[in-house]
Amino acid sequence: MTEGFGEPEKDGRPGLQAVAAVALFAVVVGALWAQKELVGQKDTSAEPAACSKPDDHLPARYVSGAKLCATLDRPDLPALLGTSSERAETVDGSGQWLTLAGGRKIAEPEATVTLKTYSVKLTASYDDMTVSEAGGLLGDARRTTVLGHSAVVYSSPTISIGFDLGGGKATTGPGGTARCVLVARHGKDDGKGTFEVALWRQDDVPPDDTALMRVAEQVLPTVPGWNED
């Protein structure tokens, strides 16, 4: 038995490898192992998914992966995605550092919720690049605003991760496309941090930008640190 998942690709934007604000680097291996452990156990399909124990390694001044997880795992998320009959199947978060060339580290906590049709990732980044500057480095970026905050919408390729539940081996290959919206943390695009929402489908069909913006507009104002100094 093999499970297949998509995940935004690390190497899809070579010009932005040093930009924490647009990084989408979390890997779902932990979730895959969790599914393996559930094989042969009781049926938990009727139970709501809960945030897995986050791997947080950030100082208190940064939003934690646990808080992002709790923020994104909201009851109306399936409805915002246009898939009201679905529910969260896996939910996880982490607080981690992104190490740039030269050794500089940037806090980048994140959380991911996976449903039958969609996966949604919420990332916070604490670098000094403005959304406008990041948008200039993204070839297909469309400039917009989210609740009065500067934002750019762009595409990111994904990788497909397959996991052999019997043999314990993982395989990777090309996946579909994620649609992402990068939003300034403050109303003024001052380079003091960003939030990003990324959306991709399990069947590799292009995601719905309308759903992406609905999620961003409802979720971002509830993230700790939104519009705060």
Features:
single chain, 229 residues, alpha+beta, 11 strands, 17% helix, 34% strand, globular, disordered N terminus, transmembrane helix, DUF6215 domain-containing protein, membrane, DUF6215, transmembrane
- Given helix and strand content, the structural type is alpha+beta
How many strand elements? 11
Tally of DSSP helical segments: 5
Major beta sheet summary: 9 strands, mixed
Query: What's the SSE pattern?
Result: EHEHHEEEEEHEEEEH
Distance between the termini: 49 Å
Radius of gyration: 17 Å
Percentage of residues in DSSP E strands: 25-35%
Q: What is the share of helical residues? A: 10-25%
Number of domains: 1
Chart the SSEs and their pairings.
Elements: E1 2-8, H1 29-38, E2 55-56, H2 65-72, H3 77-81, E3 90-95, E4 97-99, E5 105-107, E6 110-114, E7 118-125, H4 131-136, E8 142-146, E9 149-164, E10 170-184, E11 194-201, H5 209-219
Parallel strand pairs: 2-3
Antiparallel strand pairs: 1-9, 3-6, 4-5, 6-7, 7-11, 8-9, 9-10, 10-11
What does this molecule look like?
17% of the residues lie in helices and 34% in strands. With 229 residues, the chain is α+β, with helices and mostly antiparallel strands. The protein has one domain (2-10, 19-40, 47-222). Strand 9 (149-164) and strand 10 (170-184) form a beta hairpin. Mean pLDDT is 79; it is low at 1-5 and 10-46.
Describe this structure in a few short sentences:
With 229 residues, the protein is an alpha+beta fold. The chain has five helices and eleven strands, in the order βαβααβββββαββββα. It has one domain.
